[in-house]
Amino acid sequence: MNFKTKFLLISFCCIIIINSFSQNTFIPDDNFEQALIDLGFDTPPLDDNVPTANINSITNLDIATRNISDLTGIQDFQALTNLDCSENQLSVLDVTQNTNLTELYCSNNMLTNLDVTNQTNLVRLWCFNNQLSSLDVSLKPNLISFRCENNQLTSLNISNLTGLNILTCEQNQIMALDVSDSANLSRLQCGNNQLTNLDVNNNTNLSFLSCEQNQITNLNLRNNNRLAFLYCFNNQISVLDLTQNSTLTDLNCSNNQLCTLNINNGNNSNLTAVNFDTNPDLDCVIVDNSNGNHSTWMPTSFTNYVETPSACSSFVSVDVLPNIIGTSYTLPTLNNGDYFTESGGMGTQLNPGDNISTSQTIYIFNETTCNSNESSFSVIINNDDYFIPKYFTPNNDGANDVWQVYDRLNLVNNISIYNRHGKLIKFLPSSASSWDGTFNGQLLNSGSYWYEIVLNTREIIRGYFALKR
After folding, report:
1. How far does Cα 12 stand from its chain's mean position?
2. Which residues, 6 or more positions from 421, have their beta carbon under 8 angstroms from its beta carbon?
3. Cα separations (Å) of 394 from 163, 246, 320, 444?
């Protein structure tokens, strides 16, 4: 054989070898190759190669739960749009060449890095239960479902993901989460992170929110009127206003620092599960009907249900003292509250044992961590033999609820009270008796009423006073 013939033969063999290599894709993982054989994309025996022509037009590849540890060769699946390689043993996943991917499922592996910057058309990305410490999902306008829970993420930038509908990122170490661009978000699960704030004002389609086990102090849900499920337990929330959430069915806000829980939203009858246990400072819960059935709500022993926020103060105990008329008055010891010269715990604080020598109104103010309550009484310093009040306010607030003459020397024999037409309304046999503003059990209207006081000397004193409601 001459030299030229030998050269042509060697060249032809090289071409054959080169073509042979170029027509096959290297698949070093036997489990990956076996999966391709099972799917009909390769034939036995295992030889670490698969014909490239068999795979370069595949659009959907499901190789989940195959015990695959190496996905080398996936780069030749050029037409791939849907890849499910979840529940394997992957520590590396290189899909940088698979630019047509719209759905990528790689959960339950051991991935420490995932580069999806070339997958601009991603619609679904599920990479939960891995060891990812960072992940860039920017420039993914079509992404609607993103699951990255149970990784090691410390931050997550989802800005510009305007189409996002589902986001689950719980069980990471995320310190801040901005979901303001994702107005279509209907499901958000971000529990078990390190969030101190969560703003969902723009997420008006939100129906499911779980943000439990964070450090959130404020949660404004007034714009989320489609919310049905709310799980925000184990945070530091002090106020939870659910008055605008009329579709709510499940609520767990236990283990917070709630001072206010307002569920007066017209939908209490449809609540299937409510748990606000372990909020030790919560004095009361505001509901649709305070007499409704709350027997299945947690804690079951809780009974302080009201219908208005102002009614919560009634659960704070405060002492009540009668009005005092005398030449002086010594403040007694209190069980609930402290003395002040102005309402709301303002002014000068007075102490038990203080001697009051000037006429004034004294307030007894008591507060818990969350609420407060107060009562008041009048001290009228009068050195005359008797004192006739010019008005009273029978509204059951504990102050000036009855009209009564102060008779220091017991000079009064009896008192008659008349209306403006001269009709006898009440007869009091002595100054020790009082009138509560009723006639035959009926409340009388505000107005002027006349009195006739007969002294023991038979002297008669006449005048009028006002009833104010």
Report:
1. 75
2. none
3. 62, 39, 15, 10
Task: Give the mean pLDDT of 189-209.
Answer: 97
Q: Pseudo-torsion of CA 266, 206, 228, 122, nearest 10°?
A: 160
Residue 20's pLDDT band (cuts 50, 70, 90): very low
Q: Which amino acid is at 62?
A: D
Q: Is the pLDDT of residue 15 over 60?
A: no
Residue 190 is encoded by which pair of tokens? 């971000």
State the DSSP code for 319. Answer: -
Contact between residue 377 and residue 322 where contact means Cβ atoms under 8 Å apart: yes
What is the amino acid identity at position 63?
A: I
H/E stretch holding 22? helix 3-22
Read off the pLDDT of residues 308-320 as tens digits, 9 standing for 90 and up.
999 998 888 999 9
CA distance 40 to 22: 21
- Token readout for 32 is 């990956």
- Sheet of 447-455, strands arranged across: 391-392, 460-467, 447-455, 412-418, 424-428
Tell me phi and psi for residue 170, to 5 degrees: -70, 165
Q: Cα angle at 107 between 102 and 108, to 5 degrees?
A: 165
Q: What is the mean pLDDT of residues 203-228?
A: 97
Report the b/e string of 8-31 with b at 16+ CB within 10 A. eeeeeeeeeeeeeeeebbebebeb
Averaged pLDDT for residues 144-173? 96
Q: Which domains does the chain have, with CATH numbers?
A: 316-383 (no CATH), 385-469 (2.60.40)
User: Please, which residues have CB within 8 angstroms of residue 105's CB and are 6 or more apart in sequence?
Assistant: 64, 83, 84, 85, 86, 124, 126
State yes or no: pLDDT of 416 exceeds 90.
Answer: yes
Mean pLDDT of the chain: 93
